[in-house]
Amino acid sequence: MTELVDFLKSSGFYNLGWKEVVMLAVGLGMIYLAISKKWEPYELLPIGLGIVIVNLPLSGIATTPVEGTGVQDAGILGVIFHYGLSHWNILPPIIFIGIGALTDFSPLIANPKTLLLGAAAQVGIFVAFWGALGITELDPGRFSMGEAASIGIIGGADGPTTIFLSAKLAPELLGITAVIAYTYMAAVPFIQPPIMKLLTTKKERQIVMKPTREVSKTEKLIFPILLMIIILLVVPRAAPLVAMLVAGNLFRESGVVPRLTQSASNELLNIATIFLMLTVGTQLKADLVFSFDTLLILGLGLVAFACGTMGGILFAKAMNLFSKDKINPLIGSAGVSAVPMAARISHHMGQKENPNNFLLHHALGPNVAGVIGSAVVAGVFISLIG
Amino acid sequence: MTLGPWCRITTAACRTQCRFVGGLTHRQTGSRASCRNRGITTSRRSATPSRSHAIEETSLQQAAITTAIGAGTAFALLTSLLIILLIMGFVAVRLQRRQAEQSVKAELALASADALRGAKAMAAVVAVGVLLSGREAGDNKGDEGAVS
C-alpha cells in the first residue's frame, strides 16, 4: 500500500497545481492558434508544445546539465537550452544565416531612404527600456539594466535578436521576452493598423510611390559585404547576428552555391527553429510566468511595438516635408522588422485606400532595415551593459 | 536556499551558481550582481536603498549613455549605409546608362553593317541577273539566226 501511495505521489497528477493547469491551457491555446488560425505557426506551435512539456510536472526534460559531474540527469531540452542559448548562444545566429539566405536587399538598395525608417522605428526599444527603468524607480529592485534592455529589445520585433540579447543579459527573462516578442509579432495585424490610421490622413495613405529601379547583381553582392564591414567595425558585439545574416545572403546572391543557399534557408533554419522554439517554450514554467513582472513585461512590450510603429510612420511624414518624391507613411510602420508581416500590413492598408497602390516592395526596405537596426542596438546593449 | 541579497562573486559564476542552486535567478544592477529566488520574497527587498535612490545616479547615467550611444549608433550606421547606397546607386545607374548606350551603338553599327551587307548582296544579285540576262539575250540571238 505504501508503495502505491509513493508511486501516486511521484506521478504528475499529484504534483499538478493550478498554475501548471493554466500554463497547459496557454500552451494548448498557442497550438490551437498556430494550427487553426495559422498565427506564426513556425513559432507558436513549437513554443506551445514546449510550454505543455515543461509544465507537466517531474518530466525533467528541461533540466539543465550540471557542470563538472560525470553522470548527467539533464533533459534533452535543458541541454539544448544550456549549450544552444545560455552558455554558447549559437541558435539565434544560426537562425540569422537562414534569414540572410531568404532576404532580398533589392528594395533597400533601390530606395536607400527607407533605411532611415528602419532606424526611426527602433525608438520603441528605448521607450520600453526607459519604461522598465521608470518602473524600477517606482518599485525598487524590479528590473536590472540588463533586464530593461531585454524588455526593450522586444520593440525590435525580431525574435532571434530578442532571444540573443536576453540570453546574454537576462537569461531568466529569456522565455518571457521571446514569447511576448513572437506573440506581438503574430498580433501585428491587430496592433499596427489602428496606429497607422490614427497617425496618417486618407490622402497620405493614398500616396502612390514611384516604382523602384532594377538593382544589378554587383550591387546585391557589394552591399552585404560593406554592411558587415561597417557595422562590425563600429559594433563588434553585433557580429554573431550581422555576420551570419550577411553569410546567408551572400550564399543566395552569389548564385554559385545553390546547395548552401538551399541548406541555409531550409534544413539549417528549420532544425534551428525546432530546437530554439521548443527550448524557448520550456522556459515558461508556471512559477516564472505567474508574477507581476510578466504582466509588466507584457505591457512594456506592447508599448515598445506601438512606439516603434509610431516612430517609423512619423519619420516618414517628416521625410515627406523635405523630399520631392513622396513616401507613403504607411511603409514607416514596417521599420519595426516583423519580416514580412509588417510589410504586408503596410501593403494591405495602402490597397484599401487605393487598390492600384502596391506598397509591398517599398515596405520591404524599412522592414529589412529594421532587422539591421535592431541587431545594431542589441550589439550596443551587449557592449555597454553585458 | 538563498545566496544572500548581494552576490559577491563574478556575474558569470553567479549566473552558473544561481541556475544550479534550486533554480535561483540572478539580477545584475550596474556593476553589482545580485541573486534572488524569483517569486519567493527574500531579504533583498528590505535591503534595497530608499525610494529616492531606487535607481542609482550612476545607473541612470549609464542608461542615458546607453540610450544616446545605442540610438546614435543605429542612426549613424544606417545613415552611413544610406550614403554608401546612394553613391553605389549613382555609379550603378551611370554604368547601366553607359552600357545601354554602348549596346545601342553596337546595335546601330550592326544594323548598318547588315544594311551594307544586304546592299552588297542585292548588288551582286542584280549584277548576276544582268549578266545572265545578257547571256540569254546572246543565246536568243543565235537561235533567231538559225531559225531565220
Oligomeric grouping of the chains: heterodimer
Quick one: how many beta strands of chain B?
2
Class based on secondary structure composition and strand pairing of chain A: mainly alpha
The radius of gyration computed from the alpha-carbon positions of chain A, rounded to a whole number of angstroms, is: 22 Å
Q: Report, as a whole number of angstroms, the end-to-end distance of chain B.
A: 140 Å
Estimated structural class of chain B = mainly alpha
Note the gap between the termini of chain A: 55 Å
What is the H-and-E element order of chain B? HEEHH
Number of discrete helical segments of chain B: 3
Give the amount of beta strand of chain B, in percent. 5-15%
Q: Care to describe what's here?
A:
- The complex is a heterodimer of chains A (386) and B (148).
- By secondary structure, chain A is mostly helical.
- Helix content of chain A is 71%, strand content 0%.
- Chain A has helices at 2-9, 18-37, 41-54, 76-87, 91-102, 106-110, 114-120, 123-138, 145-152, 159-169, 174-186, 188-199, 202-205, 217-234, 239-254, 258-282, 286-289, 292-322, 341-353, 360-385.
- The longest helix of chain A is centred in the last third of the chain and has 31 residues, at 292-322.
- The model of chain A has no long low-confidence stretch (mean pLDDT 92).
- Chain B has helices at 11-20, 44-47, 57-147; strands at 25-29, 32-36.
- Chain B has a two-stranded antiparallel ribbon with strand order 1-2.
- The termini of chain B are far apart.
- Mean pLDDT of chain B is 68; it is low at 1-52.
